[in-house]
Amino acid sequence: MSTFHLHPDLQPLDERTALGQRLDQYRAIVAGAFLDLEWSAASTPLLPATDLTIAGIVRHLAWAEDRWFQGRLLGSAMPSPFNGPGADDPDQAMRLVPDDTSDSILGLYSSACARSRAAVASCRSLGAVAAVPSFGIGPVNLRWILVHMIEETARHAGHIDLLRDCLRSNG
Question: Model-level pTM greater than 0.85?
Answer without folding.
Answer: yes
